[in-house]
Amino acid sequence: MLLAACGGDGSADGAVGDASLSAPLNLQAIPGDASATLSFTVTVPRTDLLFHVSCSADNSQVTVSMVSHATGTEQMQVTGLTNDLAYSCTVAATDASGASATSQPVQVTPTAAAPVSQVPAAPTDVQATGADASVIVSFSAPVATVSSYTVTCQGTELNAYSTGTASPITVPGLGNGQRYACSVVATNSVGDSPASVQVEVIPAAPDAPPATRPDTPTILGAAPSDGALSVSFEPPAGMAPLATYRATCSATGVVVTAESSASPVFVPGLQNGMPYACSVTTNTAAGASDASAGVTATPRTVPDAPRGISATPGSGAATVSFDAPSWNGGATITAYQVRCVAGLHEASVDTATAGTVVIAGLANDSTYSCSVTASNAAGSGPASTPAMQVTPVLSTGTPIPGVDPVPAAPSLASVTAGNALAIVNFAPNAPDASILSYTAACTTRDLPKASFSTTSAGSPITVGGLSNGRLYDCSVTARNASGDSLPSLSLDVTPRPAVPQAPELLYAEPANASAVLRFTPRSDNGSPIIRYDASCDLHPASGTASPITVDGLTNGTRYACTLTATNAVGSSESSNALPVRPLTIPDPVQGLAAQPGDGSVTLSFSAPASDGGGDISGYAARCSDSNGTSKSVLAESTGSRSIIVVGLSNGVSYSCALMATNGAGSSTASLVATPNASLPIAPTFTLGDTVIGDGALTFKFGKPAANLSDVSYAVACKQTATQTPVSPSGLNLAANPFSASLTGLLTGISYTCTATATNSKGSVSASASATPNKAPAAPTYAAGNTVIGDGALTFKFGKPAGNGADTAYSASCKNTSTSAGITATVATDTDPFIVSLTGLANGSSYTCTAVATNSRSSASVNASATPYTAPTTPTVLSEGNGSSVGNQAVTVAFAASSSTGDTSSSLIYNASCTNIANAVDQKIVSGSASPIVVSPLTNGATYRCSVTAKNSHSAASSPSAELQLSPYTLPDAPGLTVSVIGPPALVTDATASDYSSAANAKLKLTVTAPASNGGRAISRYDLGCAAAGQAGVTPVTLAAAGPATLAGLANNVSYSCWATAHNVGGDSAAAGGVALTAKTQPSVVTSVSAYVCSRNRIVLKFSAPTYNGAAAVTGYVAKLQVNNASGALVKTYGTTTPGQTTFTGLAYDTEYSMTVYASNAVGDGPTTTLTRKTSGESGFGSGWESCPE
User: Fold this and answer.
1) Where are the domains of the chain?
2) Burial 669-682 (b: 16+ CB within 10 A, else e)
């Protein structure tokens, strides 16, 4: 047995490593302030490499690791060095199989940064490599102090920016397939360099995604600052410390990225006031994770100085006016402070809006400089310039009647000391609505005198700017429109420091059984901070500066860590809390064993006794021979606990090692030696020996004759895609060949059986795959579907519905007599599929065989036909010249073919008509001569019609020219509604002459379009009405559907009405409707006459009216009145029957007017009037001789 240690060959100098990895070359170092930037070249750029830089000086050593960018030149920045100390630095590369030799060392001495006097030169040697939705830009740094680099990639739709401290820099967020022009700018404290030359690059998606991508971090937030955002996040669990994190912040048309090895990521180069959407990705040698959820934040800075400052003096006060700044710094202004200073005395007023404020508590006859600052979330901006000068003066005027007197002095309650401030509590002596403000003033008791004041609307007032430890006397004055009150009694106070502000905890870095806390101090509030106390869930640690290490933690346990700061006054509140989970490298794997195979070794193992407190992310296996040639495998952590190393040489002895990896690194390697022996020969397999059935398979494997009797055989089967195991039946491993039968399988699904031969030296195997199936049905064929042409044949074969989707179709053709093969054009993507033959000999028979094939078997069908010379094409005749249209049919006329193409005495013609709008609507009708009627068709649709001729050998001519025809029929009956148009107007005496028959009723007829116009446009509608025994009304014609009125109808008569629609074919069936007309009054009474039958008696005679108005006459009325201007009524007679009425007792020699009319239920009819004159007392009246009596 051969054992070899992993990671070296026993050489003395220690510069050992993986023989397949080359050491980085051309290592160079540029010193910086407590830092160094190292650049080197990589022989074979790879994404799965890690680089480790080590810089040593005396007893100090700093190590930095970085994931490869897969570029030929890499840069790494080493920080935390000591200035003026000489360091020796080296770099090595590692992968899953081990480490390369270290590079040649390079010497570098960090120095304190000298003042920078000019911007750096532009970077050179810019190269850009396209990646998935990103670009990797490498470059050479200028010879100058540089703090950062910015890569800009400009596209037609998007400009993207990414910052970094060294080459190369990745620019993400780009569009694959789009062209970008990229350049680099170097930045130092003086400014930006010119842009480098632009290089063009096109990002592209990889051919295949990485097998394993890192998990996505959890974004926590984005803290804004001046032109930048700090994006904080929580790394995914179990992530290796060599991972980097990239924050991407995007706004409209711009993307800016930055990287960091821990949270937060500082993203500079942003525009204040513009919202950015930010996300974070994890980046390892395996690639980049998906982007986290996004957060939106807006960079901001302090606002500009307020504008338009003016100051007006008052008595012990000044009125200051100002406007808002021209730029709010990208955030809403929250407050303004107006401050007036004269020597050691100052007073200030805070206000929320720009405008005018009054600052009280000023000393008269002292000149004050007044200025204004604006504040937002970023802090206070610069003071306005220049400061306005103002000198308050004492008012000497006498009080004005009706004006409030100055207020009484307030009552001072208490003064509380703070850090450089005093809090003054007071109350007014009496309620006074005229008080505008209060001013608290604190003056030093000892020399030199200094006074500070603050004005506010009420108690308490905080007076700032005081010196801790000095004694101050503080008082309060009140102010109204008339002036200031006397000062209150004073109280003394001595300001003192306060406890410090809580520090800001930036990072909580996991280490072995410990956590390293890095933080930023905050204000000490007037007393120096003497220590910082850290706590990770009750595990304490202390220190005087960042970082602080908390020991005694348990690896794998999650802790919440906080900090406090302590000064002479006391301790601050706790800082923000950050989570951390300590970890170390795992223990070695256990129970490592090796099983040799054909060109491979399977390593089986058990999990380490301890995972070091971190999730095991994978295992790395490496097998090496005595010549140093090795093969490595990286595997994710799985439950199988086995790794197969392939690509080995049979018969060669290998030493294999296995390491477990978590976020802290890799464990110590576990070693195993493999025996050197000959393996058996794998079982043999022939696909033709496989028996395929419906839901069943039988595989047969042969035993190689060279295998000895100590070789055992085994078979394991599974579903190929899902790897689901399937148990074989009828397994007789003693037979040769031995068979494995599978039943109850899913038809159309692939299954694989693997036969293994094993001896004491190892195992080898052979796999066989097949798909169970039922036998396919043969394609279908109907002779009528064969198209016979001049030297050509077209066969159509149907695909049986029961055949599965895995069934393949094919066809081959031959001369039936000679069996000579014929080239055919086969189109199997349609159903039926088409087989076409051309260039054939007319009169010779040809046979085509169509085959359906699946994994089980094949089935076929033969079709034979003989090509002949086709008839000449018939000539179709146009509509009106023989062709015509009808109801759901067209008649296609044509001139017969001039030649039959063979000796047949007659031809068969096929007329084909296809709906232009719906190709499925096609009709083919055969006939022996012209014309041919094609039906049923759709009325109103337009059809393309053509004619082909076929002779007795079924040889068909080419189709004739197409003729467009549109069948039609009569339209359907239209819709008809009939209604009475109100009762007729009553007949009056004035219209009685036109009332001969009282036929004044009206009906309204409304016509609607029929359901079908028969395939042609409707040109008119005819409508009318008639009644039994009545003359018909003259019909009305409408050009379009709508209403029409029929007048002159008899009253109270039921009319039957009709309507028809007319198209080019004629009239439709009639639509019907019935309506009863209205009634009216009777007409005038007839045969009216009057007679003077004596000197004072008149007889009136009359007959019934000719028309009773469709209602029975209910009575008659006769009236007699003197025929003069007064028209006095003399007599009225009523009767229900016509006849005569005698008026007696009349005056002599008097002219009378007689009126008579008939009535029915509707009303009174027109009147008839006659005039007669009685005779004198001794004479006779007119008409005496003709008196009817």
Assistant:
1) 1-114, 307-396+407-493, 504-577, 590-673, 684-770, 780-865, 875-965, 975-1076, 1086-1173
2) bbebebeeeebbbb
CA distance 91 to 103: 5
Beta bridge partners of 834: 796, 827
Residue closest to 519 by CA, chosen among 560, 575, 582: 575
- By CB atoms closer than 10 A (0-12, 13-18, 19+), residue 703 is buried
What is 307-396+407-493's CATH topology? Immunoglobulin-like (2.60.40)
Q: What is the pLDDT of residues 705-725, one digit of tens each?
A: 888 766 889 999 999 999 999
- Say yes or no: do domains 504-577 and 875-965 share a fold: yes
Looking at 3.40.30.10, 2.60.40.10, 3.50.50.60, 3.30.1050.10, the CATH number of the domain 975-1076 comes to 2.60.40.10
Class of domain 684-770: mainly beta
Model pLDDT for residues 302-347, shown as the tens digit of each residue: 999 999 898 888 888 888 999 999 899 989 999 999 999 888 788 8
Token pair of 439 as six digits: 């001013």
What is the homologous superfamily of the domain 590-673 according to CATH? Immunoglobulins (2.60.40.10)
CA distance 724 to 721: 8
Separation CA 1078–CA 1083 (nearest Å):
15
Contact 558, 235 (CB under 8 A): no
Exposed, middle or buried by CB within 10 Å (0-12, 13-18, 19+), for 442? buried
Alpha-carbon span 182 to 175, nearest angstrom: 14
DSSP 1104: -
Kindly state the greatest CA–CA separation across the chain.
184
Q: What is the DSSP string of 455-498?
A: EESSS-EEEESPPTT--EEEEEEEEETTEEPPPPPPEEE-----
What whole-number distance in Å separates Cα of residue 954 and Cα of residue 787? 8
CATH code for the part of the protein at 1086-1173? 2.60.40.10
Residue with tokens 């070693």: 671
Q: Domain 504-577: which CATH class? A: mainly beta
Closest listed residue to residue 645, CA positions, set 714, 588, 598 = 598
Residue 56's Cβ-side half-sphere holds a number of Cα atoms within 13 Å equal to 6
Cβ-contact 360, 477 below 8 angstroms: yes
Residue with tokens 């256990």: 590
Joined tokens for residue 1077? 């007309």
- Comparing CA positions, the residue from 448, 438, 499 lying closest to residue 474 is 438
Burial 980-1003 (b: 16+ CB within 10 A, else e): bbeebeebeeeebeebeebbbbbb
Q: Which CATH superfamily is domain 875-965 in?
A: Immunoglobulins (2.60.40.10)
Note the CATH architecture for domain 780-865: Sandwich (2.60)
pLDDT of 1114-1171, one tens digit each? 899 998 888 876 666 777 777 778 888 888 888 888 888 999 999 888 888 888 889 9
Write the burial class of residue 352 (CB in 10 Å: 0-12 exposed, 13-18 middle, 19+ buried): exposed
Distance (Å, whole) CA 76 – CA 38: 5
